[in-house]
Amino acid sequence: MKIKVKFYADFKKMFFEEQDIELGDRAKIKDLLAQVCDTDERRKEILDSSGKVKPSVMIMLMRGQRSEVVDREHAELEDGDVVMVLRAVFGG
Q: Are 28 and 75 in contact (CB under 8 A)?
């Protein structure tokens, strides 16, 4: 299946702005991240030392006309999905 990945803000410098990624059937967000985080430097930007997505990273999934923040590792992907990776915004 083909998934479009988009990186925003400072992630664009380390990764890319947008790219189509081929994944096997029933792939999950963690499978996609394993493929794009292909260097130690990239892994450290997105994943913590245990391999989980850092709290400072937001993963959004756009499927058709609907977008939502999804489970950081276990959301199952479908052909044509768009995954957006950006910095979480904190404040108060």
A: yes
